[in-house]
Write a structure and sequence with these properties.
18 strands, alpha+beta, 30% strand, 13-stranded mixed sheet, 33% helix
Length: 343
């Protein structure tokens, strides 16, 4: 049994264990405290491989081949004055972390597929209104995350796949890796690529989600029924949530992708859409004292402008005054006689 459990431990740490092997390991961990202690120390040796899978495997297999688990060496503080309480605090924190990971594995594991792996903490980056940021993923891919958006991913991608979950909008520049497809799950669709650049816009409150391809080629799959579309550069896949279907069309690259470069574009936009975009872009709230005397059909572009300058331009075109206080903007449309005087 000992050789069997050693093999299973090595396979579990390298994410190669089957469902049956995971169940054997769970039972073994529950048998006695020393088993969990040994497993924790083996996982510590794995973690000390610094993210290098082969190095981690070598460390653990060497321990298992000796059929012993060595305790982490504890040196007396008197032996070396340079070893402070801070050092030992770090060691203790590492052991607590490893023990927590083992407990999570033992009590809560994923049953969604044939291969079972211990759940790991996800990294989540979330932007509120008025905030955009660039995120570097574990494989070197770059993500530009828009306002009111979040992205979640594992601290280290697996040997066979790269998976992220998106809520909101993000632009991806994916590092090419033919052995590991890059997948983005967002509002009922999964976008798969190897090495490419594309934009995903998938807000929960929106009636549709849009994948716009800038470079390379991607596959867009509808989760609910398996419908698939393959995109070439310059084309977008549109997921109509009401009809639960995918469609494709050419898109305006400047209009759809320039947000990541700080360019705010309005094209034939109505009043509601303009204020919604400005709220999200600058993290403010709009309040209107009266109604617009004219129909909005705004087309204009701003590059890295502050909100006050933008409101001056739009206010001149659409005939309103504004007051900006903290995070609230009050809009007051001019009366018709004042509009004639200003013309």
């Amino acid at each position: 049994m000992k050789n069997d459990i050693n093999d299973i431990i090595a396979k579990e740490l390298s994410r190669e264990a089957t469902k049956a092997e995971i169940e054997v390991l769970r039972k073994w961990l529950g048998e006695k405290k020393s088993n969990r202690k040994n497993y924790n120390l083996l996982r510590l040796n794995w973690v000390q491989g610094n993210g290098n899978i082969q190095d981690s495997k070598t460390r653990v297999l060497n321990k298992l081949s000796k059929n012993i688990v060595e305790e982490t060496p504890i040196r007396s503080i008197q032996d070396d004055s340079s070893f402070s309480w801070t050092y030992w605090a770090k060691i203790a924190a590492t052991l607590i972390l490893v023990g927590t990971l083992a407990l999570v594995f033992y009590k809560n594991f994923d049953n969604s597929s044939g291969v079972q792996v211990a759940k790991s903490e996800l990294i989540t980056k979330e932007n509120p209104k008025g905030v955009k940021r660039q995120v570097k993923l574990p494989d070197g891919s770059n993500v530009w995350l828009n306002a009111e958006s979040s992205i979640s991913y594992e601290p280290r991608f697996t040997d066979s796949s790269r998976f992220v979950k998106l809520v909101g909008e993000a632009y991806f520049e994916v590092m090419k890796d033919t052995q590991r497809p890059f997948q983005v799950e967002s509002e009922g669709i999964v976008t798969t690529a190897l090495g490419t650049a594309f934009n995903v816009k998938a807000y929960a409150e929106s009636k549709s989600s849009i994948v716009s391809l800038a470079e390379g080629r991607v596959k867009v799959k509808l989760v609910s029924n398996g419908e698939v579309l393959y995109l070439n550069p310059g084309y977008a896949a549109i997921h109509n949530k009401n009809e639960n279907a995918l469609d494709t069309r050419a898109f305006d690259a400047e209009l759809n992708l320039s947000w990541k470069d700080g360019v705010l574009i309005f094209k034939d936009e109505n009043e509601e859409t303009v204020f919604q975009k400005l709220e999200s872009w600058y993290g403010v709230e709009f309040e209107q004292e009266n109604k617009s005397p004219q129909k909005w059909n705004l087309t204009t572009k701003f590059e890295n402008e502050n909100l006050e300058e933008i409101l001056k331009v739009i206010g001149f075109k659409m005939k309103f005054d504004f007051k900006l206080e903290n995070k609230r903007v009050t809009i007051k449309y001019l009366k018709k006689q004042n509009m004639k005087k200003s013309n």
